[in-house]
């Protein structure tokens, strides 16, 4: 019997959202939102402190119904853009959707403003019967101290369309069309960023250095412009959130949106800083394993085994699905839906957005996953990671469109856990000692990339935002970035000058300021959960699935509190580092 590849590298199918950029269905969606908004405006006079709970709930339901359509329009525009950042139709549609959403939001603003102003006892009365909407309604009220007048909020919305709403896609369009030249085996290749990545993390030390130098040569050439964009991002963040909305700090804005107490985030950052020595010790040890006296920054992700095993996509897909099913058959089944419904874009194309993501649109929709599959072990891990996200959303599908989406700090739980399940499977099946060693080292490399690296990005963001407000030049910000790297790595490796441009190549700090600490949060949390899993076995599973299926229907501290985790406690975070420290001890013994 011939073997058939069930899963192949291909583009996703966005037709289920809308059949096309010009389709009547898409136009109808815009019209539909407009009609619903017009009818919602009729509620304005009915909003009274003593209004009855049912009328209030009807308004919330109506607003959710409208959000669902808007979510679909935005998802379609965003996915179309990410599959080809040079697609003019996609770019136009994003701008159109933003303009439209801002106008619609302005017409319905009165509702959230009224809700935030409402006295506590009536708010409590109206929330009592609101079921799954409750957390959404509570969350809105958290923002009361930072809310402006209706007229001011309207201006912010409409100016954002042509402000950050325009600048950030411009950053994406510019950086995603970069190509990189690299001489491989005497031949100069022109590569996308995704295609350059395997050389950056590859076995050849010379190519690693050259690939990194080329990466930051290209970004550095536009460094002053990209840096200027970042300055605008940081100023805008400051002007709006600190000057107008009176947040206490640039990071506090994200913390409130994440509904995580500032003290929990501070504990995470401080404990991580204190533990940077674990990674420095790891780098010094890794140098020996790859035959160097000292690592260069280029060598952090170098494989310790010489093998550069490639995985066919079909093999990769099956490995991931099997590892999920081994934990719980339901997880494998959910992940399979992403393939079966053509929601995965794994192909490499010029102009396609780099990296990987999972987009969950509405609770009833199977999420869309984007990645650039090059066949390396790391890509298999990425597949597990993104499908983990998809599973998380699908497990929370019984919540509303406002509450199924987990907040950022918990957003990396299922994804990271998914990677751990895959690693477990790989280790269990691999008999070649050198490959096993490589897997264990990769686990530490990934821990570095998701914990230390991301926390230092967050520390850098904090500093860079402050520097911008002190009128620092792009070069001064780059210098601060180099200082950040020196503190991060200590004397554990050689750092070369071109890394001063790394920060302008990190989309997260442009897209979603202070997003990055969520990765460290997720990874450390998962270490702790995985320890529990190892200790408790089967009885752990329902507890874990409960965390995931809560989605974003409660505060992260509450969801985790129920599982016995206290995120305010430095001891909890230290626990994650103790696991890492032991992993380094184990590797030293090899
Ligand atoms: Zn993720």
Q: Give the fraction of residues assigned to helices.
A: 55-70%
Q: Which sequence of strands runs across the widest sheet?
A: 4-6-5
Instruction: Give the tally of β-strands.
Output: 7
Described by the principal axes of the CA atoms, the overall outline is globular
Q: Which spans of ≥5 residues are poorly predicted at pLDDT below 50?
A: none
Spatial extent as radius of gyration: 24 Å
Q: What structural class do helix, strand and pairing data support?
A: mainly alpha
The overall pLDDT average reads 94
Beta fraction of the residues?
Answer: under 5%
Instruction: Note the total helix count.
Output: 25
Q: Ligands bound here?
A: zinc ion
**Gap from first CA to last CA:** 43 Å
- Describe the sheet with the most strands: 3 strands, mixed
Oligomerization state: single chain
Model description:
This protein is mainly alpha-helical and 590 residues long. It has 25 helices and 7 strands. The strands form 3 sheets. It has a 3-stranded mixed beta sheet, with helices on both faces. Strands 1-2 form a two-stranded antiparallel ribbon. It has a two-stranded parallel ribbon with strand order 3-7. Helix 1 packs parallel to helix 3, helix 13 runs parallel beside helix 25 and helix 22 crosses helix 25. The radius of gyration is 24 Å and the shape is globular. The two termini are 43 Å apart.
